[in-house]
Amino acid sequence: MTPSVAFVPTRRRSMVLPLLVLVLLLMCPVMGLASNWPQPVSLPPLEGDRVVLRVTGEHGERGYTLAQIEALGLHRVTTTTFWPEDGGTYEGVLLADLLAEAGLAEAAAVRVLALDGFSQILPREDWQRWSVLLATRQDGQPMATRDKGPLRVIYPRDADPRLEDLAYRLRWVWLVQAIEQVAP
Fold first, then answer.
1. Residue 19 lies in a domain
2. CB neighbours (10 Å) of residue 175?
3. pTM score
4. Would the pLDDT of 19 be above 80?
């Protein structure tokens, strides 16, 4: 007697790989793989009418309160940082969304200025390649009540090994008070 060999039609075999990929993608949130990238989140809005951020471009300056910033849509990311005590969960808006709202989506770069005088230039490819966050909260609490607030630039460091490079360390600006377009 000849052993039987299972025959799978070509059309069925060609569907196995896409189905496997789909199952893996659906399992990413369950396995924690998707948490490395900022995910949309809904939180009670922060209140206050004090301008905490000034954004300047070729069309002038705009002031933003925390409520106006968060109205652009909150995202959450859990990531390590270059400072072990700072790792955790951050909530805020995508820098790309804020810059688009301010008319700076196509800027070649922006300078982020901190309350302590520190500043750093962020090139457009950063906010286009990665979901860079302008954090308003850490672990659900307003950054304004912390020593690195009211706003802080957060890269999704755990999402891409390239972000572990020390070149990105200085781009994690905290105490953010202003963002300005850099002339080409």
1. no
2. 18
3. 0.78
4. no
